[in-house]
């Protein structure tokens, strides 16, 4: 009888609830820390890659990658063949994504989207590509770090098996209804844009790049 009473004593129940409360508190603290750390993950990843990746993200056998390998005095054996699919590669910010075609904003969920009303690199004019700033991740299929691009940065776009090299010439912010950024141009340009500021769709961050090769 004494054993049964001790097993159902108020003190035992109290200790049991305290353990549950402590466990829930630990879970809550860890979850809060995780949520607070998420926005900094891309920053930490980009910094780490910059310190450890001597090739600065040049993975394909592009002209820029060959120049970089020669400058650094490293082997070119690691370079992949130029892809046949349409792909935008921006080594400075870790972008390496298919450029998808289609109608409707849902296409953006598949990667970077060439706006169907814009030109293509082989035709000259203004080729316009847009992408999510953050879509469940901040990886190479997004423009999460597009604000880190600087004037003078060079990157490349593979289009139907041909390499097009670009240099950033302008960076600016527009309102969502300023669709003139998609207007065609007499000179061959590449226009990239995404939402800004981060975690908001209030405005659009626009990168303009001119064809250099």
Q: From the helix content, strand content and strand pairing, which structural class follows?
A: alpha+beta
**pLDDT average, as an integer?**
83
What is the share of helical residues? 25-40%
Spell the H/E element sequence. Answer: HHHHEEEEEEEE
What does this 3D model show about the protein?
The protein has 213 residues and is α+β, with helices and mostly antiparallel strands. It folds into two domains: 1-52; 84-211, Sortase (Sortase, Chain: A, Beta Barrel). 26% of the residues lie in helices and 25% in strands. The chain has helices at 2-7, 10-37, 41-52, 63-72; strands at residues 87-90, 95-100, 112-114, 126-130, 154-159, 162-174, 189-196, 203-211. The longest helix is centred in the first third of the chain and has 28 residues, at 10-37. It starts with a helix and ends with a strand. The model has no long low-confidence stretch (mean pLDDT 83).
Brief summary:
The protein has 213 residues and is of the alpha+beta class. The chain has 4 helices and 8 strands.
Salient structural properties:
about 210 residues; alpha+beta; Sortase, Chain: A; 2 domains; eight-stranded mixed beta barrel; 4 helices; elongated
Please specify the SSE layout and strand pairing.
Layout lengths: L1 H6 L2 H28 L3 H12 L10 H10 L14 E4 L4 E6 L11 E3 L11 E5 L23 E6 L2 E13 L14 E8 L6 E9 L2
Parallel strand pairs: 2-3, 4-7
Antiparallel strand pairs: 1-2, 1-5, 3-4, 5-6, 6-8, 7-8
